[in-house]
NmrA/HSCARG family protein
Amino acid sequence: MTNINKTVVVLGATGQQGGSVAAALRADGWVVRAVVRDPSGYRARSLAASGVETVRGDLGDPESLRAAFADTHGVFSVQPNSGQAGAGVTDEDEVRFGTAVADIAERCGVAHLVYSSAVTAGSTTGVDHLDTKSRIEAHVRNLDIASTIIRPATFMELLVTSEIGLDRGHLSFLMRPDQAMQFIAVRDIGRIAAAVFGSPESYAGRTMEIAGDALTGNALAGHLTQAAGRPISYSRLPTTLPAQDEVLSKLEALVDDGRLVGNANLDALRTEFPFLLCFDRWLAGPGAGLLDEALRSTDTAIAPR
């Protein structure tokens, strides 16, 4: 890789995506600086113990970002959104944070910005926390900074949450039983981001839809049954749920019209990133612990958001 002695700032490093990026960059030999609200918190201390530099900062505090971005090669940008339970942000907050990060990176002379968006970006979906990504993407492209935009597919981790109902032998999700949808392991998002930072000459200016597998609902049930050692059935979310939840109704419509199922070129991606995990390999590896927890869960099943 190039620039091995350079530093990359990772936003959201105490979360799933940012944490995976920080880990992958460290594995590749980068110096990683994580911007965290509370360096004394458990997750921040875990990052520090793994060799990540943690600095106090906040997406709503431009001065803290300017200090964090000084003398860095790259910035990985991901923002909380209103679709995440407990995130405590509005859609306008997300756009303000995402555009500010890009602006400050440009002004600080950051060489490479990697922004994590969504598969639906580029079209108006009517789901506010998805449409925010298109606005941030457009802003990033208008700046004088080398940038790469990645659009991850739906996380494999969402299929084995403790609330999804696997302990009762059933999985319900957004697509029909015979309808394929693309998924990606969060770990692989980090490894792709690390590869992007390692070869800016190959990735600057690119917008990349990324995924590791495409599976129907029935295929998901088959893989889960094999991994769990007990029958797991599949059905689409109950028709009563989307009717009661406007966002879920819109998400199902986006699956039906193809915009949320993902359209990544899996063959090309697997050639470019041979480490990409398919769902069965993920279940046998990084996802094994999550699956075990989900199978033992006693939580009431809820619809994915």
Q: What stands out?
A: Confidence is low (pLDDT under 50) at residues 1-5, 300-305. The CA atoms of residues 91 and 129 lie 6 Å apart. The first helix runs from residue 16 to 27. The longest strand covers residues 31-36.
